[in-house]
Amino acid sequence: MKLVLSEDWGAVVLGFLLIALVWGGVLSNVPW
Amino acid sequence: MHVAQQAASPHARWATPLRRIPGLVLSLAIVLLLALLANRFSRWSPRVIEYPLWAVGLGLIVNLIVTAGGVRGQINQAFRTELYLKTGLVLMGATINFRDILTIGARGIIQALLVVTTVFLVTWVVSDWLRLDQKLKAVMSAAVAICGISAAIAAAGAVLARKEQLAYVTTLVILFALPLMVIQPYLANLMGLSPSVAGAWIGGNIDTTAAVVGAGAIHSEQAMKVASIVKMSQNALIGVVAFLLALHWVVVVERARERPRPKEIWVRFPKFVLGFIAASLLVTLGLLDPAQVKAVTGLRNWFLTLAFVSIGLELRFREVKAIGGRPALAYLAASVFNTSFALGIAWILFGR
């Protein structure tokens, strides 16, 4: 269970880090 | 003697993590390469084969190869469906206006309450008819009714199920979810369902969240968003169901004096849903401009592809062989009921 919880918060931290990088202009173009 | 020597050595503490690094690097390389291939193949192939299908298919092929080669255990550290999926869903929050989350989510919660309660009880009764073990019945009912793997883990914790029973159910979840991920979007198109109804149907029926997002993506962007929000409304109920199950277990089955604490509801709550909502709020307040939202959408698609690749990579073939007929039959019966019931509810709630 501990693993599941840390995965949840890990996803939130990683997601917001990526959003911050986009917002700060570090990641401005992500081709898909 | 050998163990004691190892524990005393100052190098021993680092030996195990260091030994895992090559496996981690290799498994990460496999996941990234397969995601890249899935992206490329989906561009070159006919429109009907969308990227989630390529990703799961490539994952399954490589899984077969590394399992046959006997090296799967050494190179599976980066096969992390849940982590990639949840990160992808937090990023998806930044591509959806908060007002949409409120309107879809309000209906999603009503749908979740109706579907979860009814499907849970039907699976419970079907499992009784087929004389399944009490603990297996509880884990399976939670898995079919709520959200597959995470619900199965929560329910297994609540009723203290055996490890094999949990492995059994999680394998069934993936075995049923993969064909549904392919079939349901096409059925929705055949029936002429609107993207919202299709998304709500997919979100209310397919058990594992990764396959829900995959099926939604195969149908359309709007169906993917509705399916994800509906599924997350369902996921949010995990804690409540785990708490009630634990209560039923100690009061009715074990007749024990101890009671589970209501705090369990928060402990089991899927926290990434909060990240999804917060990301949507940021974008609704105008933090990101349209070009930045496009970049976040690209990142979201990459993370979802990593999750789809990992579904294929994480399927355990040995456990598939071990599944007996009666649990599979119970799961099939419950899934057929879930599919038709969720279609009716989705059509009523999202049809206009």
Using only CA atoms, what is the Rg of chain B?
21 Å
Oligomer: heterodimer
Helix- and strand-based class of chain A? mainly alpha
Q: Tell me about the largest β-sheet of chain A.
A: none
Strand content of chain B: under 5%
Separation of termini of chain A?
34 Å
Level of helix content of chain A?
55-70%
Largest inter-chain interface?
A-B, 22 and 38 residues
> Could you give the count of β-strands of chain B?
0
Give a quick rundown of the structure.
The complex is a heterodimer of chains A (32) and B (352). Chain A is mainly α and 32 residues long.
Helix/strand layout:
The complex is a heterodimer of chains A (32) and B (352).
Chain A: H1 2-23
Chain B: H1 2-8, H2 12-44, H3 51-68, H4 81-93, H5 98-129, H6 134-147, H7 149-159, H8 163-190, H9 195-205, H10 209-219, H11 221-235, H12 238-253, H13 263-268, H14 272-284, H15 290-314, H16 317-322, H17 325-350
Helix pairs in contact in B: 2-3, 2-15, 3-15, 4-14, 4-15, 5-6, 5-11, 5-17, 6-7, 6-8, 6-12, 6-17, 7-8, 7-12, 8-10, 9-10, 9-11, 9-17, 10-11, 10-15
Report on the structure:
The complex is a heterodimer of chains A (32) and B (352). Chain A is mostly helical. Helix content of chain A is 69%, strand content 0%. Chain A has one helix at 2-23. The longest helix of chain A is centred in the middle third of the chain and has 22 residues, at 2-23. Chain A is elongated and about 30 Å long. Chain A starts with a helix and ends in a 9-residue tail after the last helix. The N and C termini of chain B lie far apart (72 Å). Chain B is mainly alpha-helical and 352 residues long. Chain B is globular, with a radius of gyration of 21 Å.
